Amino acid sequence: MSTLWPYPRWIAHRGAGKLAPENTLAAFRLGAAHGYRAYECDVKLSRDEVPFLLHDATLERTTSGRGTAGELDWAALSRLDAGSWHGRSYAGETIPTLEAIARHVQAHGHLLNIEIKPTPGLERRTGIVVAEHVRRLWPAGTVPPLFSSFRPDALHGAMETAPEVPRALLADDLWDGWFAVAQQLGCAAVVLNHKLIDAAVARQVHEAGLRLACYTVNERTDAERVLALGVDGVITDAVDRFAPALA
Q1: Kind and range of the H or E element at 191?
Q2: Could you list the active site residues?
């Protein structure tokens, strides 16, 4: 197994995305307050190709906006309220750009897992643009983010643009050829739904020299099971129940 794995085992999902508005600076700050030093977040492109944080293709669930997020320019997206849906205390929280998150995590010495979350049809272009920004935002000699995506085309775009930034294939089921695709993309890791991981999968991944991470682990029994199988990364919403410094 490769030893070049600088990321902590415990990773806060979308910041502290259940206790604060997901994919916002408020969520990152709350994750840090619970001892987390690595965060997963979702990144897509505005119409004018500004990378920003949002999970859904549409705006309704987590912002004051409506419609497809990628069809708006950043100027319009930046004015949306991304906090009130979670609670009045977060009213006025905005959608952050990737650049804002990059500055935040680097100022605190924290690390990032960027899930490339393209607007449908823009998979490869999103991978390219996000990788271009990461190359600019993370200075040489610093630990870069880990790219991950369910979309191989997005990872391919990132690989073409910034091959030195490590990649991970995300999978919610073990579809035919999933592991071969991860290897073809030069992935450093795979990130699987924790329910998919058993001893055989863990052995397959590790014997090939890749790292194995999983999502979204919120129950102690699930955490104990995947840790016993030797996973290298655990993405969780339960930042208030799992203390990474003690785990």
Answers
A1: strand 189-193
A2: 13, 55
